[in-house]
Predict the 3D structure of the following.
Amino acid sequence: MQLLRRLAIASATGLLLYGIGLWLQDGLIEYVQRIVLLAGINVILAVGLNLINGTTGQFSIGHAGFMAVGAYGAAFFGVKLGPVVERLLGPGVVANAVTFNAALLIGAALAGLTGLLVGAPSLRLRGDYLAVVTLGFGEIIRISFNNAHFLGAATGYFGDTPAGLPAYTSFFWVYAWAIAIVILIRNLTFSQTGRSLAAIREDEIAAEAMATPTTRLKVLAFSISAASAGIAGGLFAYMQSGIRPEDFRFDKSIDMIVMIIIGGLGSISGAIVGGIFVAVTLELMRDLQQYRLVLYALLLIIIMLVRPEGLLGSRELSTAIRARFKRAKVAK
Amino acid sequence: MNLLSLQNVDKIFGGLRALKEVSFDVPARAIFGLIGPNGAGKTTLFNVITGVYSPDGGAIHFEGQAIGGESPARVATRGIARTFQNIRLFRSMTVEENVMVAGHHLHQASVLGAMFRTRAQAEDEARLGKRARELLDVMGLGRHAQDVAGSLPYGSQRRLEIARALMLKPKLLLLDEPAAGMNSQEAAELERQIRFLRDEMGLTIVLVEHNMAVVMSVCETVHVVDHGETIAHGTPQQVKRDPAVLAAYLGKPTEEVA
């Protein structure tokens, strides 16, 4: 029953997304479409990063590295996989969808694995030390791609054909993945595992005394967070004809941090709001490209002064609405 | 049978010998008091037993197995739960969530199960929630289940720590100054709850406490340490009259009068 209901909801959502996608394609200029796609990708990045930075309280500032692993992994394996899938299924929409999603999953798996390798040694560190180490790893990953000749080194990876990477990324797929990842991470956050992660943030010594396997859970959260950044990276790669190492510089990690701080650390709704907010403001500030980080810094300072807990604090929109309904009922 | 037994346990911090060959046995279903002046090494003893520190000498046995040097999470899984002298709650989480966290080793659902909200996982959550609320009722915190832990009054926070420790399904409960900051009425209620835990839930309890009224009324055996060394051991009545204990607390009588 439950499975059937879920399938029904999923297909209805899929149809809705497909419809909106078609409408956007006709109705909006390409420039706006691009912002809409970037907003969806940002939501994935922010919700994923919030799991480790917000919920678990372990500050990572190197997530652009995991996004890069996902982007390169998805691009490379998608290009190699494409012809094989086409031979099996015949060219067409189905083959494209299969190739694309398989590529995204491979990218996510590689990013998750990298997260595991980076997280296992570094999550024994705390606070600033962890931040510095993740920053370092993020740069190591980017510089590795800068020197990987089979991936185009500094010029970037554009697939095997002059046409570049196929434009698989569409409104439908970006938002289908965004919704799926938000739901999966929300479910995890509001489970025993999520409570244990929050307990690590609140007091690691007490969590350990309550039999919480703290190191294992931190590494797990870090890998899941990295894997979702990997999905975002794959979607990002197929949005344009190719990817370059400089797409994943340190300021990309800062963008992600800004998203979750603006929305409110520890809140999934906040991460969603923050992700969309950053996508839109980045575009509005396009003309001021070189002053962008300055403006961000100002914005962050203002938020810290006026509303230190972020737009939503650590609350969720859903619980706030439910609480309001309850209050309204009581008032009657 | 002895549930917990320490033989010649040593702990050294740099040049300071915080524990010197401390030995004692805690029989099953006992209420065992551990007292001594400030800085005597009582909390260090708790930290050595629960794996926060590993002992530099001697042996610790729980249910006949050596546990010295194991990680805190491992020791907790074996059935030793504790509270902290300087309350360590998960302050921004609700009271109920605080208790549920300690059920981590009891729940079976996998991470994937949690992400996809499987039925087994939902049942697991319901079971943990039910047990947490039962324990909150035992400690008299039932109606605060949805409050934020950090907003509770001091005495309630101490009792919440006990409820959280109980969630581990421990056999041995170590209470570090459970009555600190409580008024006499709250302390009396705490005494009743400690007896309930032993009599009805079959727990063995070791408590560190400075409130002598509580120690004398609730403990069957008292172990006194000073400067990391055992200075007395016996029933509350015996210990109260022990000259070494009086000297430790009040100072040695001197011959010459100033």
